[in-house]
Design a protein that fits this description.
There is one protein chain. By secondary structure, the protein is α+β, with helices and mostly antiparallel strands. Helix content is 51%, strand content 13%. It has helices at residues 4-12, 27-38, 68-77, 139-151, 157-175, 177-180, 192-223, 236-240, 245-261, 265-271, 273-276, 283-302, 308-311, 328-353; strands spanning 18-21, 43-47, 49-51, 57-59, 79-80, 85-92, 95-102, 110-111, 114-119, 122-125.
């Protein structure tokens, strides 16, 4: 256990071997940081400490609403083999700060089969995939890929995962031009396999947008436990089905997002003041996302065949029973739109709720 003098020394250090976070990290993200330090010579993580752009530290303190030691153990349980780590609370400037000291490991520490390392002040996947696009491929795909690369700069863990998925989707589009858009981006494929893959790619893109909203809600709840307080009721069975408070927060966030899976983004925004107060989802954007969700619903449940419900959202020449065909250009347009919403939401959440970034 470090002495108070040693902790203050770490607080003043501007070193790649000392990292900090103003809030408690989700267990998976905490496991990444621990593995990164363990695979890179060791280091220290101060939780409850905020650093500005020039690296100066400010003690913000850590909420005691969570069992931080238990959540740290949960993060360590995700790692194979379990690295040598010591941790505990320290009282600094009238605030509680949680310090983890991670010793360098002789063996590679893996998280779900992945090796994380430290790259300067960042924790990165050592096998992070670099997407190279075909030199003669569609310029719109490359331009959107570059845009996503910019978005992957300052990001929450939630946005990082969805951006990686979108980059992989773009790579599939780039590789399968003859199957998905043999006559150009603005013409739907006539191939049966191409139609199926188009529906799969579109649905997964929308699914990951919903997953992002669930994950960012979870991050807000974890960063600010007071935001969990509401008049909503839960059953004893729901509580007992969760192994700890972190699991309950995940359950609660996913329950909140379930309304979107029924195509009601308007209700979701209305019921989630934390998202509504970001002022990102205007009436027009809600309507736009509503249409995006309805197309996904049509693909997931009706194989793209238009029904009466879909016609409430669609304005065009098609009627009940017609096949709704998306072009690859349509997919790129929707992916661009959703990724912009994610970028705006992420920046607003980071600013308003002080969420930790990668």
């Amino acid at each position: 256990m470090k002495t108070i003098e040693e902790v203050y020394t770490l607080l003043r250090q501007k070193s790649p071997s000392v990292d900090s976070s103003p809030i408690l990290l989700p267990s998976r993200q905490l496991a990444q940081v621990i593995a990164g330090f363990s695979n890179s010579g060791g280091g220290h993580l101060l939780i409850g400490v905020n650093r500005d752009a020039v690296g100066s530290a400010k003690v913000s303190g850590l909420s005691t609403d969570f069992n931080v030691s238990a959540m740290t153990n949960k993060a360590l349980d995700l790692l194979v083999p379990k690295p040598p780590v010591t941790y505990g609370f320290h009282h600094l400037q009238g605030q509680q700060v949680f310090l983890l000291t991670i010793t360098a490991s002789e063996n590679e520490i893996l998280l779900q089969g992945k090796k994380f390392i430290r790259d300067g002040n960042r924790t990165v996947d050592s096998d992070e995939q670099i997407f190279n696009f075909n030199p003669g491929g569609e310029i719109k795909i490359k331009e959107l890929a570059q845009k996503l690369q910019v978005y992957s700069g300052k990001t929450t863990d939630a946005k990082s995962r969805v951006i990686t998925h979108y980059q992989a989707a773009l790579k599939i589009l780039d590789n399968l031009a003859k199957l998905l858009y043999p006559d150009g981006l603005n013409s739907p494929t006539s191939s049966h396999e191409g139609k199926i893959l188009t529906r799969i790619l579109y649905s997964s893109m929308v699914d990951n947008f919903e997953i992002y909203l669930s994950d960012i809600l979870y991050a807000i709840y974890l960063a600010n436990p007071n935001t969990l307080k509401s008049s909503a009721t839960v059953t004893l069975e729901q509580v007992l089905n969760c192994s700890d408070i972190e699991d309950f927060i995940q359950f609660y966030a996913k329950d909140k997002i379930s309304k979107m899976k029924r195509g009601s983004v308007k209700t979701f925004i209305k019921d989630n003041k934390l998202i509504a107060d970001l002022n990102i989802f205007t009436r027009q954007r809600i309507e736009d996302v509503e249409t995006v969700l309805q197309v996904r619903h049509l693909y997931a449940h009706s194989n793209g065949l238009i029904d009466e419900h879909f016609l409430k959202f669609y304005r065009g020449p098609l009627t009940v029973g017609d096949e709704y065909l998306l072009t690859t250009g349509d997919i790129l347009e929707k992916l661009d739109y959703l990724s912009e919403l994610i970028e705006l939401t992420d920046n607003a959440v980071i600013h308003k709720h002080n969420i930790s970034t990668l």
